[in-house]
Amino acid sequence: MAEKKTHNKNFIHELYNIWIAEQPFHHAPGLAYYAIFSFIPVIYIAFSMVGIFFDEARAQNELMLKVTETLGEEAATLLQESLLRLTENLQGGSPALSIIAFIALVLTASLMFFSGAVCTNLYMDAAATET
To answer: Is the pTM of this model over 0.70?
Structure first.
C-alpha cells in the first residue's frame, strides 16, 4: 500500500513538473481569443453544410433549444440574432461582396482550428519526445 502511495505521489509530482515546464497558460489566451471570435462563423458554416443534406431551420431550432437549456434564454437570443445578422450580411449586396465576406468568414472560423492544432501539436510533440 505504501508503494502505491509513493507511486501516486511521484506521478502527481511528475505531472505537475510537466505542466509547469510546458507553460500552457501562454497558449490559452490565444486559443480563447480565436474561439470567441470564430464561434459564430463556425456555427454559420456548420448550418450551411447541414442545410445541404437536412432541413437547416430544424437544425437551428434544435441548437437554439439546447443553448436555451444549457446557457439560458439570453445566450440563445444573442446567438440567434448574431446568426441572423450574419446571414443577412452575406446574402444581401453584390455577389462579389458576398464571396469576399464568405472567404473572410472561412478564414476567421479556421483560426480557431489552426490555433488549437498548434497547441495540440506543441504538447503532443513535447510529450512524445519526453517518453
So the answer is: no
